[in-house]
Prior knowledge:
By secondary structure, this protein is an alpha/beta fold. The chain has helices at 31-43, 67-75, 78-86, 97-102, 124-130, 140-144, 175-191, 207-226; strands at 16-20, 23-26, 48-54, 106-113, 133-136, 152-157, 194-198.
Amino acid sequence: xxxxxxxxxxxxxxxLSDLGSDVWLMxxxxxxxxxxxxxxxxxxxxxxxxxxxxxxxxxxxxxxENEEARDRLLAAELTEIxxxxxxxxxxxxxxxxxxxxxxxxxxEVHFFCKQTGTEPGLGERLLIDTGAREYMHDDAGxxxxxxxxxxxxxxxxxDLFNRSDMWATGDLWTDDDIRYxxxxxxxxxxxxxxxxxxLSFDYSxxxxxxxxxxxxxxxxxxxxxxxxxxxxxxxxxx
Length: 238
């Protein structure tokens, strides 16, 4: 893993970093769609099973009932996908899963999400139109036992570990609870074809909360996937 001074991380919607071992770190979650698309093309993988571990469902479909936009998405090559993501053209922090499903890059989604007060999942219309399947999980150990249909994308948002719904306010899980969750899903992390992690500043607590979560979570993920002990650079202990 290239050295990251976690204390220097800042909110940055353009931040996207290749950490090695097919682990990618970003702030704005929309970049995950570009990473998945590029990875699939480079490795000649046409279909993935997605594990989405996040406080939020992030399942908005901004292509709904817009045939022109949908046709453009389906026909887009990688350079145009990158432009669409960069310019947030119907692909944003909460609407990056649906385009992967529409393009049939992702054919099943396994949600591990804590969000309430909104309709869960992708919605019946999108599932019918694409033939995709979705599954809801609330037990990390059970999720780790799933027999996935295709190569796995493990997608994690650090705001999973923040119970607060208040903007830029943290009510974090304990470090022990976070480590326990990660250990439970470790088999999925290790077997995944690619891993994407979003910092999601402000959703994942205060800025210091987000930096703390990144320092706790990211080195463990890279270590498990690389088999090499990584060093936390400049991490302040809390």
